[in-house]
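Re: the 598-residue chain
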Amino acid sequence: MNAPARVSMSARLSAFALAAAVRLRAAARANELTLVAVAVVVGVLAGLGVAAMTLLVDVAHVVIYGIPFDVRLSAAARVSPVAAFAALPVGGFAVGLIDHWRRARKLPRAVDPIEANALRGGRMAMSESLLVCAQTVISNGSGASVGLESGYAQIGGAIASRIGLALRLRRQDLRLLVGCGAGGAIAAAFGAPLTGAFYASELIIGAYSLANAGPIFAAALAATLTTKALLGAPYVIVAPPVAPLAVGDHFILVGLGLIAAALGVGAMRAAAQLERGFVATRAPSWARPILGGLILAAMALYTPQVLGAGHGAIGLDFSAKLSAATLATLLALKLSASLVSLASGFRGGLFFASLFAGALLGKLYAIGVAAALPGLALDPTACIMAGMGTLSVAVVGGPLTMTFLVLESTGNLGVAGGVLAASIATSLAVRATFGYSFTTWRLHLRGETIRGGQDVGWIRELTVGKLMVAAPPTVPVSASLREFRDAHPLGSAHVVVAVDDAGRYAGLVQTAEAHVATLDHGDDGGSVAALARLPQTRLHPDLDVRAALAVFDSAQADTLAVVDRQSEIVVGTLSEAFTARRYALEADRAARSVLGGD
């Protein structure tokens, strides 16, 4: 085949691919079934990501700690001190080095799926997400007390976002697809499609909608089947049969939920204090994970259960006869190890760590209930499952997510009902006393104010700079009233902005007010400075619409000047009526997208 023929064939293939992409994009935007098909692809890719990350970590544990391939690190009888004191600091150094390299290259911080959906309309960068996944694999692979689930959700959400951006999906469809990717990854991790689906709705998208159910459940099921076909669910939980719960048992479990809420809030606050403690050491940021690794290695000498996510340990402790003192010690060590890991700079999640700590709490609670109320025949397994669900709700959020995890683990609807009651109590207590999950709390410490995946990014994107009328009429503040009338007759402008000689804002002049003033024969009426109103009140282009409405309300003004924040030069004007109308319009559009409307 000659060169022109090859070029022609290449051009035809490119044109065909472009046309196919355009048709797929149009179908995905207009047809719900096509969006479901895209969600299935996202789910399969998320499942592949989960399988790949899990395999890498399992191999690392076998090579580093010398454990059998079918034994979890946290379930090992003991670990070599040499391995622990070598692997954890070296892993910490690798994680810190990646962060140092990122900052030196001035690369942006990675955005997780919750932040992406809340503030960025579902936009996630693949390169930054891959860095997060690499750090998560290194952290868990070296034995840090964190789970892979945050990395799973990160890669699932990033894949979904990349596909959605390539298809140029609408904002609400892109947010939905990110929920499909992250939820599918969690479903694959636990072998629990219902759990993953509700994780997507509760935590990533921030709302339940019948219109979203098809793509979400399709992605969760596709991801679960993909991972199971390759190596099985990494974090599957198998619970023994549970005795039916009586009515009074629900109230006992609600008490456990309130204790879990207090423990979860305390742990989240302690995480911030520990992070400040590591900063106070004045060690370079890249060296802090090394220090954290040394602390974790010392803990591992007491028990390997503090290492990794804790999946092996939870299976080990489920049926083991442990004293209250042992349970309390293990609970304190596991929470401390997880918080030290994250505070020092290791990457990972607290989802499974909170499940393991919750199981210990539930078992400890069952011992306490049996001692205080010996006549109450409450199944300890019910307390364990409720402890897992409630502490996870306190730390991660999502009462329905955790309830369905218990349901899919036990197959017992009665126990799931008791866990739901306890989880709702936990959720209400945390919201009333704290208001954040661990993810949103860490965002709050960085200055963000989001409480979940609900879409509030449109508020920040709808800025004064986008709403204002640029280049408004101006008048020198030193000009006379007669000059003002000549330059701005009635009907020309409602408000004129007064500026000083340098063009800086000096107040607002009502045109009608200037024209009703009486001028004596031959008198210029003095300067317009006497009529300038609100000289100290102004808007800035970077303010969002809600902040602008608050300024309008405080100033009791119909129109305000928009002033550059640095130079104080007037760049526009904005009216309250137009601002309120646009805010109402965008809020209605956002509400309709949540409910599945167009």
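The beta strands are 469-470, 474-476, 495-499, 505-510, 559-563, 570-575.
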